[in-house]
């Protein structure tokens, strides 16, 4: 038995040495040991030092055309868009363009335009074959609309779409509105991605009220067992500072104030939005940048009273650290 193991180990070691030597040959010139470079124009791999052509007539797997900007790239590309969860059919169906032009860019006649409009109508009907697909299409449209209004990136929209699909598959929608579940999905996705929006901001662009969003959000998170960390006040600071036109120094100072508040335990039980707004306001004053409480209140969508209260608590915590 031991002889078999020894034989297998030896063979395995020999195979590894052979693969390493082959990889080394691929990276270095077999004649002089110099570095190899790929000449894409001639389809050759040559040695930089001695000029030996190691490989010729290589296959170029890229496109045969060149593009110098994104518009030209889109025009010349002959493949479709990648699949995405942000569309109810994942982008696999065919869309009929809204431009009434033929392949040569010429305008269609009135009769052809009417025909294309009928084709678009029937194509749209066939894309949603049952009530579940119509539900999903409406919800994903809502998610896209709200995400655009809140300035959320594509990865958040994709995650929100996946969360909504899971809720639909696990039959969580009966007794709840499509708008409520789609809003809760977007709220959860934004928090998961580390780009949270406050409940007031979410409610401002949603078609349902704040209480229903909070209730549906708790239900969806519980039933789908989503792992969502409590919102960090620091994640709101860059957006508030950007909207107020503050400098990088003010943003760093705001982060420092929040770090001090965390070390002192002041953040416990407090609204992360209120703490972030107060930290930005305090940092602006400490760096001699003129910002009023009303401006911060408007950007953060939180009352001036909350900003004043958190502002005093942050400065007291900072003074306590300084005295120690």
From TrEMBL:
Stabilizes TBP binding to an archaeal box-A promoter. Also responsible for recruiting RNA polymerase II to the pre-initiation complex (DNA-TBP-TFIIB). The gene is tfb. This is Transcription initiation factor IIB. Residues 1-27, 68-92 are annotated as: Disordered. Residues 68-78 have a biased composition (Basic and acidic residues). Zn(2+) binds at residues 29, 32, 47, 50. Gene3D superfamilies: 1.10.472.170, Cyclin-like (1.10.472.10). Keywords: Metal-binding, Repeat, Transcription, Transcription regulation, Zinc, Zinc-finger. The keyword Zinc applies. Sequence repeats lie at residues 141-224, 235-316. InterPro entries: Cyclin-like_dom, Cyclin-like_sf, TFIIB, TFIIB_arc, TFIIB_CS, TFIIB_cyclin, Znf_TFIIB. Residues 13-25 have a biased composition (Acidic residues). GO terms for molecular function: DNA-binding transcription factor activity; zinc ion binding. Residues 1-10, 82-92 have a biased composition (Polar residues). Belongs to the TFIIB family. Residues 25-55 form the TFIIB-type domain. SUPFAM superfamilies: Cyclin-like, Zinc beta-ribbon. GO terms for biological process: DNA-templated transcription initiation. PANTHER family: TRANSCRIPTION INITIATION FACTOR IIB, TRANSCRIPTION INITIATION FACTOR IIB-RELATED. SMART domains: CYCLIN.
